[in-house]
């Protein structure tokens, strides 16, 4: 039999992974509810992760500050991966393990929500951010991979993509991210239609 190309093999693996995340639907709805409730109360979203997941954190916050599908008002969301000054000073003066937890302390208020991404589940800076968020009354949603790693069992809502390849886990995280954005946006627009929020 002809060997699969890299693309064919990746697509085949991605199909398998994406099928498994259908099991996460109740948790996806819960994550969307937690975030929509927070934004409608006037709280904000924080997000963190390393490497590709750092980009996911910024991708997510941009969907709220700027736009996703629909025309609507902006909502407050801060990517903890985006400020070079904060990241380098904290990494340099304290530790890279503290680059996100330090910002959770700086920006996180009771009732805010932290979305934290780690495909291994073992990034110490993400683990510390989750623990710090819990300490300060910030709700937590963890996007994990493999079996959840050291971050398993900490967050209020945990979305574990049970696969061993970082790239495939990241792709599944991205689909979960967009699904949550869509669900949250529906709630935000319904609130605007009910006159509870300005539409734009
Ligand atoms: O994007 C990729 C691999 O696809 C890499 O940049 C990857 O995100 C980095 O190695 C991260 O440091 C991995 O961290 P984590 O997902 O285990 O927390
Ligand atoms: Zn990548």
TrEMBL record:
The keyword Cytoplasm applies. Its EC number is 5.3.1.28. Substrate binds at residues 50-52, 63, 92-93, 118-120, 123, 170. GO terms for biological process: carbohydrate metabolic process; D-glycero-D-manno-heptose 7-phosphate biosynthetic process. Its main location: cytoplasm. The keyword Zinc applies. GO terms for molecular function: carbohydrate derivative binding; D-sedoheptulose 7-phosphate isomerase activity; zinc ion binding. Keywords: Carbohydrate metabolism, Cytoplasm, Isomerase, Metal-binding, Zinc. It is found in: Cytoplasm. It catalyses: 2 D-sedoheptulose 7-phosphate = D-glycero-alpha-D-manno-heptose 7-phosphate + D-glycero-beta-D-manno-heptose 7-phosphate. Its cofactor is Zn(2+). Pathway: Carbohydrate biosynthesis; D-glycero-D-manno-heptose 7-phosphate biosynthesis; D-glycero-alpha-D-manno-heptose 7-phosphate and D-glycero-beta-D-manno-heptose 7-phosphate from sedoheptulose 7-phosphate: step 1/1. Transmembrane segments: none annotated. Residues 35-194 form the SIS domain. Zn(2+) binds at residues 59, 63, 170, 178. The reaction produces a racemic mixture of D-glycero-alpha-D-manno-heptose 7-phosphate and D-glycero-beta-D-manno-heptose 7-phosphate. This is Phosphoheptose isomerase. It comes from Terriglobus roseus.
